[in-house]
Amino acid sequence: MRVAIAGAGAVGRSIAGELLENGHEILLIDKAPTAISVERVPQAEWLLADACEITSLDEAALQRCNVVIAATGDDKVNLVVSLLAKTEYGVPRVVARVNNPKNEWLFNESWGVDVAVSTPRLMSALVEEAVSVGDLVRLLRFSHGDANLVELTLPEESALAGTQVGDVEWPEDTSLVTIIRGTRVLTPSRDDSLEPGDELLFVAAQAREEQLEDLLSVRREDATG
């Protein structure tokens, strides 16, 4: 897979390194000469150019990319790169970094963004996830379909503890995608049971989050009356 990353700072280089280890082809783009540090990610291609300029993106052959990641420290730049990647070059997947949470509402399909990643929001979510049991934590927002990746650690007293996945009447527009149990990562089947302490990851419509949290957190005595 060919991936172009706009922004060769610490964030962009870190993403590039991870993707290279997974066998992907990486192009790093930055307009600042000081950011072009080929020796730091020697396996990547490098381009000294302004990613907001059509001529630069032509040179980068953006139409050949499967994914574009707008990872600069400037939200305005990330929005412009996302829009150009999607509308001018038809890139199938556009991921954008949100630096200021106040700008998060802009990072949607109107600006060509498929997935918006807010670093401050993600860090706070990870803190919540580490200390919260029974509370729904939003980890990631998907622009299309108004859906989020959310997590909940199943509490000991949950009415669903010991229930098989296939026996649960999940809310509409929600999908259980992963169960993390200790060091194991499980792809849920109908016959898998939900156990106290399981970290459950869902893709869910935002409008269904409260209903999902209520379902998972209800206490046994509440469920039985």
UniProtKB/TrEMBL annotation:
Start and end residues of each RCK C-terminal domain? 137-218
Cite the RCK N-terminal domain residue spans from the record. Answer: 1-117
Which top-level group of life is the source organism from? Bacteria
Which keywords does UniProt give here?
Answer: Ion transport, NAD, Potassium, Potassium transport, Transport
Keyword S-adenosyl-L-methionine in the entry? The reply is: no
- Name the SUPFAM superfamilies on file: NAD(P)-binding Rossmann-fold domains (SSF51735), TrkA C-terminal domain-like (SSF116726)
Which PROSITE patterns has this protein been placed in?
RCK_C, RCK_N
Under the heading InterPro entries, the entry gives: K_uptake_TrkA, NAD(P)-bd_dom_sf, RCK_C, RCK_C_sf, RCK_N, Trk_Ktr_HKT_K-transport
The reply to whether NAD figures as a keyword in the UniProt entry is yes
Query: What is the name of the protein in this document?
Result: Trk system potassium uptake protein TrkA
